[in-house]
Amino acid sequence: MPRRTPRTALDRQRTPRRFPKFLGAASICALIAALLSPLTQAAAADSTTALAANDYCGGQCSDILPPGQNGNATLAQILLNQAFGIQPDHAEDQLGPYNNLASGAATLTDAKINDFFNDASFGVASDQVASTTAPGGRSDVTIVRDKKTGVPHITGTTRYGTEYGAGYAAAQDRLWLMDVFRHVGRGQLTSFAGGASSNQGLEQEFWRNAPYTEADLQTQIDNAIANNGARGQQALADANAYIDGINAYIDASDSGRYFPGEYVLTGHKDSITNAGTIDHFKITDLVALASVIGSLFGSGGGGEVNNAISLLAAQSKYGVTEGTKVWESFRERNDPEAVLTVHNGESFPYASKPDTAQGEALPDAGSVTQEPLVYDRTGSAATATATSASATAAATTLTSAKRGMSNALVVSGKYTASGHPIAVFGPQTGYFAPQLLMLQEIQGPGLSARGASFAGLSMYVELGRGQDYSWSATTSGQDIIDTYAVELCQDDYHYLYHGTCTAMDKVERTNSWKPTTADGTAAGSYRMQVYRTKYGPVEYRATVGGKKVAYTTLRSSYMHEADSIIGFQMLNDPDYVKSPQTFQSAVQHINYTFNWFYADSSHTAYYNSGDNPVRAAAVDAEFPVWAQAAYEWRNWDPTTNTASYTPPSAHPNSIDQDYYISWNNKQAKDYTTAPWGDGSVHRGNLLEDRVKKLVAAGGVTRSSLTKAMADAALADLRAEDVLPKLLKVINSSTVTDTTAAAAVTKLSDWVTAGAKRKETSAGSKTYSNADAIRILDAWWPLLVKAEFEPGLGTDLYTAFSNNLPIDESPSAAHGPTGAHAGSSFQYGWWSYVDKDIRAVLGESVQGGLSQKYCGGGTLSACRDALISTLKTAAGLTAAQVYPGDDQCSAGDQWCADSIVQRTLGGIKHGKITWQNRPTYQQVVEYTSHR
After folding, report:
1. Which residues pair with 141 in a beta bridge?
2. Is this structure's pTM higher than 0.90?
3. What pLDDT, in 10s, does the model give residues 207-230?
4. 785: number of Cβ within 10 Å
5. Is the separation of the CB atoms in 473 and 298 below 8 Å?
6. Structural contact between residues 627 and 573, judged by C-beta atoms closer than 8 angstroms
7. Smallest Cα–Cα separation from 293: which of 177, 400, 465?
């Protein structure tokens, strides 16, 4: 049957609202009637599909992935949705259960888990089979879809047939989205999907980071295959079979006229004559897709130029010695109070501060300029909206505050009621319609897994379960990106490489667009241009000691976007992963920066993946260094961008620790990550505090661990971990001002009630303690500024704010995740406020800031500053605190926080209440093992 679809692209993306207006309701109905021809594919009536063998989870594996499995929609289905809100089958049937956990977790029991999750057992019971398809008429593979969720269960008797089926099912569920993202990866989205400013920003963001030519994409495939022996050859065969399946669906849906309707709305197909083409996929498309996903979630590092700018600002204010101390205290490279994933005290030194740094190439003050990416703007590309989108895209690309999302809670069987380990884990990949991830089960020779994969990369399950084990990941963020200062020679487009003046390589992409039904953005065009060096793409220009330089960024996964395929292949192979040790061995083959977690019936495990380059001695990874042989990665080969990497034993890893938590926090003692903010207060503490308490009590169950996750998902980190200390300062003497006193009472009552952002009742769309939440949302940026700017000065305060955003509340439309994105409280100044306030109170602080800031370090002056800003915050109306956007009216607090499934296609969904939890999530407890 036809499936549902997407349209434009990522975080700030929305389907333009113009296209439903071009038809009135009557003409929509007429058009739908004309289009309701062959809307369904042939499906066999067989309902006797056998359950897959070797499922050792005993019915205790569950998962969820909103909004729904079906991510394709025909034109008729899109028009019905736009006009009447009608949803295609399985387009949003996982959204309700996912949303309901926010109110239902309090009374959760093991028996009720699948009220909020799907049964993730292998196979489909015969009475639950909705359809059985033999893709392409093949006899060696079937795709069974279940009645409840429509998830494809792919079973093959040959390896080729199995992967062919995986490609066919992926296209059934996500063809338009896959097409969108292969164009994003090539920097060609606007020419394909329209010139909306969000499309412009998206293609710029990713192409700046990975400006590959078609030859580059093919080279990455060739190298990945050549370097991995028989597994490499198998990966190539799997990928080719997968692409054959995709293309078979393209041909079938085109001839049957049930292809995604977005192809019509964007002008690629004609709804009447069927003229037009849906281009077949090719193997290099998979690398383009992988470059987008890897850049989004698995490329830690960068930000060295911003670090240098804030260091120079600190040294300018305080002098070199004291300024460096101030900078280091805010950087918190190895804060002793930071929550850790490996918490047994084991040290894993990486990217540590050298005693005496060498090779640093700090810019002359005021000399840094960002390298332009966009040239020759015409039409709508030259508007203020378009240039603003470009600025946002550049800032997102160049920051070290990467999208870090995802969480994990894993408890050893020693502390569970059953004696078997329990895990509740998954990736926070944002909320989209359709979702970036898709569910599938795949069973065939050498393949046995169920779970989630990124659309267009689902040859293998990337996060999920095998026969007797489950695995998941969180973004880790350790530094695999370095910035080099290449000295210019001859002109601005030549540089010195080992003493030889060498020309930069210019790579260009020219895009143009015109209005379509889906995107009415006026015609426009521009040219993107990147200069590449052996040390990576040029990102900035500056002078160092008066010499003109270009700052480049070199990422260890650059030109290696395809390499991780081997690790995922191993994870899906039941003959490879049989233990925590073999699991760790598999994920060692993944070159992106992730934290990986594992659970089977007896063991748990953790491993931090990524190609961590071995840096030259005395190089400080925090700052730009000279592009000279002495400061290059050890044994670096610029032709292949390979180097020596730290051995697996040097990566944070563990087996059978009492428990593991991860919410993009610090991995282990002495292991420095690139983003700022790994201090005394981190959202990882919300998990740590709850899981530690459960483990201490013992008898952990699937429901109690899920409750801990769900409780943390509604917590306001600032209110739970910092607000009590702020109130302690304020209450150090009687509050006489009536406005302040009333605010203090509301805030105190909220803390006593649990500091949650939770509805008064399910579906009320009104928070309990709403006034207190409004006050804190308004107060936080005011109090941070009043606390730190007087001492730091405006320049340094601004520079530090560029390194680490002040706040990331659910309603904040700033920060790396934007608004309505669910994920919150990763980046913010909570640790700085916590440490400073404790210091002012005279409490013990490990790894404190270099000086006291609030009120110049005196309790009374600090109290005055807090009360003054609190009064201001209390006086702000809800409309001022929540000014409204294209989703919400001004003053609507619940809506401002709410999660929006951002439309990447023609189907829209309703808002759901805020939860800070994984998008795809598993709850697992295995009962036995092979």
Report:
1. 156
2. yes
3. 988 999 999 999 999 999 999 999
4. 17
5. no
6. no
7. 177
